[in-house]
Amino acid sequence: MSKPKLKALTINRPWCKGCGICVAFCPAKVLELDHEEKAVAVRIEDCIACSLCALRCPDLAIEVEIAPEDNEIAPPAQKRILIQNRGGSRS
Amino acid sequence: MSIHKYLRERFFPHIWCAGCGHGTVLNGLIRAIESLGLSRNEIVMVSGIGCSSRITGYLDFHTLHTLHGRALAFATGIKLSKPELNVIVPMGDGDALAIGGNHFIHAARRNIAMTALVMNNRIYGMTGGQFSPLSGCGMTATTAPYANIDPDFDVAALATAAGASFVARTTTFHVKEMIDLIRQAILHDGFSVVEILSQCPTYFGRKNKMGGAVEMLNWYKERTTPLGSKAKQNDPSLIERGIFMQVDKPEYCSQYEKILQKAQSANSQTKE
Ligand SMILES: Cc1ncc(C[n+]2csc(CCOP(=O)(O)OP(=O)(O)O)c2C)c(N)n1
Ligand code: SF4
Ligand code: SF4
Ligand code: SF4
């Protein structure tokens, strides 16, 4: 299975109570609390889409949407690249 | 998102304190239910009284918010009259094992098919931090300012001894494990118990100088270990997580159905 890719991370500000759980346990240090003690994604480009913040949030304030996996066309295309590599002029 | 269909969103943000583990139990529970593809109509959730018991108010299933300690008694009535429904009973540690201890052991003994979730924060949250049968020796509470001298129950051992046929333990830190265990507990045909260690930063955390929600989750991370791990051999004080008991045993409603059939056929024979 390929690694999940982030489609969207949404924080429902009115529901967030600023407990800091998502901030403390994000493996990629994506989240911080802002001046109003609300969670914000300050380094969204680092997000590995693990969904742990959404699963642990006691206030159900975070939603992590995963991008759909590359469709069925992907594996054959990849295979083609491999075959090309093998037959290439790398010698 | 699809989990939102299970929520009564008009009551959010919910009443629990910032960082209360009970919210994470709610979170995990709806994800377990979603993964099983259950519809809202197939689920009855019955709770008693406590911060934990407020969970039923936020869920858009058939819900009953009943009396302190008596949720399992109400749930037994529902399950016996409509065995096709999935009955889920979330309880606090006080609700389940202090005032409700008798109902708990007898529901386990009967092996009636329902899912009991013990949201164990080791204290009475709702009424201001009195110690519970799960606080444990040496802990501090509003009613034990110089330390509690009451030993605690081991919920998993108690449930197993009483006859529960599925018994598991997890924490609000181990959310993926929590979802999986709740899922398995719902699928199990018999009395299933999942003890979920759930932080109460407001009372248990503060009274015991454990820090806030983050520090309490770190405590769950560091002080618990998977069942049968090497870490447990090296440090017997660690709390084990996982499935302690999973066995097929006659389920109460199906046994009752057999008795009904027996009585009916005996009755029709005497009439003939
Ligand atoms: C018959 C009865 N006795 C006592 C109470 C007061 N009371 C309400 S909640 C509660 C204990 C709550 O603790 P717990 O069940 O552990 O849940 P928590 O609030 O910690 O989630 C008590 C003693 C009550 N409501 N009804
Ligand atoms: S875990 Fe939830 S409530 Fe806590 S800070 Fe993060 S978004 Fe806010
Ligand atoms: S999905 Fe994972 S990596 Fe992304 S913000 Fe949440 S916890 Fe961090
Ligand atoms: S008092 Fe404790 S159990 Fe009750 S809502 Fe607050 S943190 Fe949760």
Short description:
The complex is a heterodimer of chains A (91) and B (272). Chain A is α+β, with helices and mostly antiparallel strands and 91 residues long.
Describe the protein.
By secondary structure, chain A is α+β, with helices and mostly antiparallel strands. Chain A has one domain: Alpha-Beta Plaits, CATH 3.30.70. Chain A contains 3 helices and 4 strands; from the N terminus they run βαββαβα. In chain A, the strands form 2 sheets. Chain A has a two-stranded antiparallel ribbon. Chain A has a two-stranded antiparallel ribbon with strand order 2-3. In chain A, a hairpin with a 5-residue loop joins β2 and β3. Chain A starts with 5 loop residues before the first strand and ends with a helix. Chain B has 272 residues and is an alpha/beta fold. Chain B has one domain: Thiamin diphosphate (ThDP)-binding fold, Pyr/PP domains (Rossmann fold). Helices cover 39% and strands 19% of the residues of chain B. In chain B, the strands form 2 sheets. Chain B has an 8-stranded mixed sheet with strand order 2-1-3-4-8-7-10-9, sandwiched between helices. Chain B has a two-stranded antiparallel sheet with strand order 5-6. In chain B, α1 crosses α6 and α4 crosses α5. Chain B is globular. Chain B starts with 20 loop residues before the first helix and ends with a helix. The mean pLDDT of chain B is 97. Chains A and B meet through α1 and α2 of A and α1, α6 and α8 of B. The complex binds thiamine diphosphate and iron/sulfur cluster (3 copies). One iron/sulfur cluster binds next to α2 of chain A.
